[in-house]
Write a structure and sequence with these properties.
disordered N terminus, 2 domains, alpha+beta, 470 residues, PmbA/TldD fold, six-stranded antiparallel beta sheet
Length: 470
């Protein structure tokens, strides 16, 4: 039995532990009129490799107890990563002290009562118990392939399992267990000046086609030799579905306002979102739709929000038009035209609601990336976007660089590699110029815990500003 199998607690023990912690909090917080706890646990394994050698095996466990108490329409939250009884009691006292001195909350609502949830089966035992030898074999295939072709392979194969339990004093109990993982691979030569990149994400490790990842990275590295120059300007592009990295996350948050979410009802009503006042307005092309759907088979995460309210699918953008917003019980309490959709963060929450299960689609038949390239008369294939940052929130203009394979395409064929390019591009404009797209794929972002199912695209007029020195 390997470490992961030894360390992971059965569900029955986790449930027992959650209820034991709730009793401890309840005994220590007798003056509170409302009690809520959120227990999150997780464990991860990462195999890291570089320069054609397996270099590091990492195993980590995490646990966090978050306690929310309400007292005479005041509320406060305190958290701890230590679950010993005395430290939990100290955390309760911290939350009580804060609640006693906080102002009364005009949005105060009673604790959420017990709810019914749609069952989600997102736990895959094999992801947790996959033998280290098999994971190493996936990596070994890439290393062997790189060596045979005079290249160096580096990357990470990571897996994770997470649990969430929410309990409160009026009988609510919500729980979730899920697995996910990723395999990131770069092959390079010429001291990193000739690189190719590939990525795969999965919930069940048996979904991972490690051979395809290795062959994709190899092919791109082979092609990415003797890079040529190109002038700045607007070019038609094909963007690989795995190229986006965190790019599309900027459609949903304003980084210049501290990564404040934009698709929430409270932000919209208060004028804090770039979308405020634009419901019913065309913000993208007629062929683009975006929805938040926690129940899509490729999505990750629980079917409830930060206070345990069940999530509902929400159509955010339909045929390019802003049609809907994420909402919550607080928004329904404030505004007559709002209904809860299960998108609250943990309370108290000054930010507002946020969608975390986005699905981006383009109307029409989906096409492979190869077919999208085949339809490009003259333009650029982008296999990876990197170091992306927001420039202007109203137009969702972002800046960044291409990386690990940028190719000139003519008459539907890759003609030559190009030096990496820097860009300044409005995402709203880009999504108004999409002609066709691939099937959306899962890509867990590095920010905000959001999972975005995003397509590869063929689009017109992507704005490159200069060649990159990297």
């Amino acid at each position: 039995m390997d470490m992961a199998q030894k360390m992971m607690q059965p569900d029955s023990l986790l449930k027992e532990r959650a209820h034991e912690l709730f009793r401890t909090v309840k005994d220590a917080a007798r003056e509170a009129d409302g009690i809520e706890i959120t227990l999150t646990t997780g464990q991860s394994e990462n195999l890291r490799f570089g320069n054609n050698e397996l270099g590091q095996s990492q195993f980590g466990k995490s646990r966090n107890l978050s306690i929310r108490l309400t007292l005479d329409k005041r509320q406060a939250r305190a958290t701890t990563g230590r679950l010993e009884k005395s430290l939990v009691e100290k955390t309760v006292e911290k939350a009580l002290s804060q609640a006693r001195t906080s102002p009364q909350d005009p949005d105060h609502l009673p604790m959420l009562e017990a709810q019914r949830y749609h069952g989600l089966d997102r736990y895959h035992e094999r992801t947790l118990t996959e033998p280290a030898e098999q994971k190493a074999a996936h990596i070994g295939f890439a290393i062997d392939l790189a060596r045979k072709n005079g290249l160096l392979a580096s990357g990470v194969l990571g897996t994770n399992v997470g649990n969430v339990w929410i309990l409160n004093s009026v009988g609510l109990e919500a729980n979730y267990k899920g697995t996910n993982g990723f395999y990131s691979l770069t092959m390079d030569a010429d001291n990193g000046n000739q690189t190719g990149y590939a990525l795969s994400t999965f919930a069940d490790i048996r979904e991972l086609d490690a051979g395809k990842v290795a062959e994709t990275a190899l092919e791109r590295a082979r092609l990415n030799k003797n890079q040529g120059e190109t002038l700045p300007g607007k070019y038609d592009v094909v963007v690989d579905p795995y190229a986006w990295s965190e790019t599309l996350f900027f459609l949903t948050v304003s980084a210049t306002a501290g990564y404040a979410p934009d698709f929430g009802m409270r932000q919209y009503k208060e004028g804090r979102s770039y979308l405020s006042g634009r419901l019913g307005e065309k913000i993208m092309g007629d062929n683009i739709s975006i929805e938040d759907d926690a129940y899509h088979p490729l999505q990750t995460g629980p079917s409830f929000d930060g206070e345990g309210y069940p999530k509902s699918p929400v159509s955010l953008v339909e045929n390019g038009e802003l049609r809907g917003l994420a909402s919550s019980r607080i928004s329904a309490h404030r505004y007559n035209d709002a209904k809860p959709t299960g998108h609250e963060l943990q309370l108290p929450n000054p930010l507002g609601e946020t969608p975390t299960n986005l699905v981006v689609r383009a109307k029409g038949p989906t096409k492979t990336v190869e077919k999208l390239v085949g339809e490009l008369d003259k333009g650029i294939l982008i296999t990876r976007l990197w170091y992306v940052r927001e420039v202007e929130p109203r137009t969702k203009t972002v800046t960044g660089m291409t990386r690990d394979g940028t190719f000139l395409v003519e008459n539907g064929e890759i003609k030559k590699p190009l030096r990496n390019l820097r860009f300044n591009q409005s995402l709203l404009e880009l999504f108004s110029n999409i002609e066709s797209a691939s099937e959306p794929i899962r890509n867990t972002t590095d920010f905000g815990g959001a999972t975005i199912l995003q397509p590869g695209i063929l689009a017109r007029g992507f704005n490159f500003t200069s060649a990159s020195v990297f």
